[in-house]
Design goal:
Layout lengths: L1 H7 L3 H16 L4 H8 L3 H8 L7 H11 L3 H7 L15 E4 L4 E7 L7 E8 L4 E4 L7 E9 L2 E5 L2 E5 L4 E6 L3 E5 L5 E8 L2
Amino acid sequence: MKQAEAETAPDPVDARLGARLAELRAERGWSLGELAERAGVSKSTLSRAERAEISPTASLLNRLCAVHGRTMSQLLSEVETEPPLLVRAAEQPVWEDRASGFVRRSVSPPHSGLRGELVEGRLAPGSDIAYDRPPVPGLEQHIWVLEGALDMTARDVEHRLDTGDCLRLRVWGPTRFRCAGPEPVRYVLAVVLP
């Protein structure tokens, strides 16, 4: 019986994330329907995410971050404990979007007094993540590929980044990240709030 309960129990991070998403919606006085309309997401998906019945995808979190005016890292940091000044590799929070094959490591978690952060992204071969808008318009991003190849599209312009290449841009509209090769891609994403 305990094993069955463990298999159906929500992931603790997903549970805290769901609770925080519900808090953000309540702070604005929005119904599920109002938030669904603003984010372009179904009410049932939002409800299931708030109750931690599903693990939200990167795309879903991006839409919700845009509505709430925060980066994904800011939202995720709100469900984690206050980060120390020094974050050892073994202590860096990792979040996985199993549906898309995206793994995100918060190398330097966001801090309320700072505008920048570092994120390590890993995409499995064939992974393709599309964001319909940035969480904060004009967000500055620097994408540095450490291993593999990444196709990144912004403003309908596709950029091919190979190992060692760096792309810097401000994000105003839709973006897309694709693992361009037969091997996984690992990259650093430096995010700077406008």
